[in-house]
Amino acid sequence: xxxxxxxxSLGLRSSLRPAIRRLRPAVETSQxxxxxxxxxxxxxxxxxxxxxxxxxxxTIEFTRREITHDVAQATDHKNEFxxxxxxxxxxxxxxxxxxxxxxGGLSMGYQAHCVILExxxxxxxSIGLSYAAHSQLCVNQLMLNGNEEQKAKYLPGLVSGERxxxxxxxxxxxxxxxxxxxxxxxxxxxxxxxxxTKMWIxxxxxAHLIIVYAKTEPEAASKGITAFIVDTTEASGFSCARKLxxxxxxxxxxGEIVLDNVFVPTSNILGQINKGxxxxxxxxxxxxxxxxxxxxxxxxxxxxxxxPYVHERKQFGVPLAxxxxxxxxLADMYTKYRASSAFTYSIARAVDESxxxxxxxxxxxxxxILYAAERATECGMDAIQCLGGMGYMNEMPAGxxxxxxxxxxxxxxxxxxxxxxxxxxxxxxxGMR
Length: 433
Ligand SMILES: Cc1cc2nc3c(=O)[nH]c(=O)nc-3n(C[C@H](O)[C@H](O)[C@H](O)COP(=O)(O)OP(=O)(O)OC[C@H]3O[C@@H](n4cnc5c(N)ncnc54)[C@H](O)[C@@H]3O)c2cc1C
Fold this sequence. Notes:
binds flavin-adenine dinucleotide, Butyryl-CoA Dehydrogenase, subunit A, domain 3, flavin adenine dinucleotide binding, flavoprotein, globular, 13 helices
């Protein structure tokens, strides 16, 4: 099926999970390749293109059923996440794509994660963003850095959708320069007391489990940061000071969270003490890669709302789509989508297929999201322009798509920082720091 053909209504009401599971027959023990991948789940086998296409179809079925135009519009207009969506996504098997099957995950890797995030974001940018914060920033970070006990304790609830996950690095005065964070973690009997605030935390107002970065040795700067698993349901002193009112991604609940003498047991240190930057960096490249699928979905959404409109609406006696200025915009939107998609999926495929010794290039992961994010905002703007007056009306999705897309030039590191990261990666290859 051509990628941008209208979505077929498959009419299937069954949950995605059994269907996706059928896609991934259990690997015969004799076929299991023993390897030491630190980035993929146990027994990971890269998915075939057929499996990925089927996964895309199944995700589209899910979004057609559960994230309709009305749901996406209401999420944006009310600035409220539909909380029952977590359980629905969990039941459908969407929440643990990169997690071990032992914990309920799909063990399908990063291409699959991109496919799901792309299609969720196509239906609703903000539901896609909250999904990514949960399944990539929290679930995948736990997969990559958690010990067996932590994974067994926390992953099943996150994968089933019973519990909501988040990750908290940024603070008011520590965004791009995140290692200058001020939150402290002081050792006490059996654990640490965390004090400080974190800003702009996706899912912060709802999260049950947050991976929080804090300074265990403030004077050691970047070498004194530790990552902690904070169970907000057990953490007295934890609060969400406010839910933030945003330009876009409305309904992806973003909060300022406060930790006031929150006790975290030693068993909830993620990774090693004072090695939080390693945990942070471990996740960043893959986070940039997977998140680049959010703008892909928004570009597709721009085309979804623009193509039918300009073919139906007539001005000067002919459909808008026959005017060269409009054709030029459609061509730009489509080409930007296709180029961004090829970039993201080629990198995701390289990561999955090199699973025995994962090859993750910083400049590729940062480049994929840098490119896709800027193109998605442009596509959103073009969609508004093609729709004219209706593009400016909130009853149409074009404005929402443009507002949602802009976030990807800021969140998870800004475009400017991504360019610095790419430049520095080249510097390192030339032996410079
Ligand atoms: C909706 C939303 C959701 C978010 N979700 C999360 C989350 O779940 N968890 C989390 O921890 N954080 C989250 N963030 C925070 C996000 O990662 C930061 O906003 C981002 O890293 C930028 O930091 P800042 O806002 O402090 O901007 P600043 O660092 O103050 O930057 C302001 C401007 O200056 C530019 N700039 C900064 N330094 C340089 C430089 N050295 N050279 C050139 N230009 C520079 C930036 O590119 C930007 O254009 C979220 C943010 C938003 C808006």
